[in-house]
Specification:
Number of strands: 8
Number of domains: 2
Structural class: alpha/beta
CATH class of the largest domain: Alpha Beta
Radius of gyration: 19 Å
CATH topology of the largest domain: Nucleotidyltransferase, domain 5
Shape: globular
């Protein structure tokens, strides 16, 4: 019997069912069972062969997941959710930060021509996930990167997506207080709210009260890492690794809005890689 509480209900699934790839022919596993199978895998972090039989054959689910992540189906789902106003309000505040993700030994050895963001440390391999979230603690942008790369360098590479929200306040910690990072954000029309380092010779004033809202991105990390496949990287390729947290946060959004239909969050896509 399938474990309750890991998947989403049918009524929540129907809100996004029309945005998923169309099923052709006589399929053994419909999209509803397939999505819940992926959520079970994300929550438990189990190998594909341990997938309960109630979700269908593990090889069927595995192959479809690889196909969806390879052709960008999850990424298009994020974009479609925003375009159709299923998720969408004006974004006035963004928060950016990164979190470390331990790389499992099975996640090594990807082909050199395929992207794999993982840094090598004395204690093993490690990766980072950089996130930008809105005031509703909902994912706006997501990117993976190697664990041995500085936050500021990684943040500058992923600045273009938050830059789409001109006029918004971007809350960051001191890791992003460098001049080049702040100037790049301002060139995209963002108002940076970041404290200067204590050894700055020319410190600046910042909105301390507004900066307290930076914990919104920490709440995203907290919700996401309840799922083992978001806390530990088991996938070799960036495209398959990113598909899982995107699906996790879509499910969290659908659950939250079902609890309180009056709450309006914003979910747009793109994580740092």
């Amino acid at each position: 019997m399938c474990t309750p509480g890991y998947g989403i209900t049918l009524d929540r699934f129907m809100r996004v069912a029309h945005l998923l790839p169309r099923q052709r022919g006589n399929v053994a596993v419909d999209n509803y069972r397939f999505v819940n199978a992926l959520l079970w895998m994300c929550r438990t972090g189990a190998p594909w062969r341990d997938l309960p039989e109630c979700y269908g054959k593990w090889i069927t689910v595995c192959r479809r997941f690889n196909r969806w992540s390879g052709n960008g189906a999850m990424e298009r789902l994020f974009t479609a959710l925003q375009e159709e106003r299923i998720i969408g309000v004006e974004i006035r505040v963004l928060a950016m930060d990164s979190t470390s993700v331990k790389v499992h030994q099975h996640a090594t050895g990807a082909p050199k021509k395929r992207p794999q963001s993982a840094g090598v440390f004395r204690g093993g391999r490690n990766a980072k996930v950089r996130v930008a979230s809105d005031s509703g603690s909902t994912l706006v942008e997501i990117h993976p990167g190697p664990g041995n790369e500085h936050d500021a360098a990684h943040g500058r590479r992923s600045m273009a997506a938050p830059g789409a929200f001109m006029g918004a306040h971007l809350l960051m910690d001191r890791a992003y207080e460098g001049d080049s990072t702040r100037l790049l954000a301002e060139s995209f029309g963002l108002t940076t709210v970041v404290p200067p380092k204590r050894n700055r010779t020319d410190p600046w004033d910042y909105d301390r009260e507004a900066h307290k809202g930076r914990n919104m991105v920490e709440r995203v990390f907290n919700r996401m890492k309840h799922h083992r496949k978001a806390a530990t990287r088991y996938d070799r390729l960036d495209e398959t690794f990113l598909a899982e947290p995107r699906l996790i946060l879509i499910a969290i959004y659908l659950k939250n809005t079902a609890k309180n239909s009056k709450c309006k969050y914003t979910l747009i896509h793109d994580w740092y890689a």
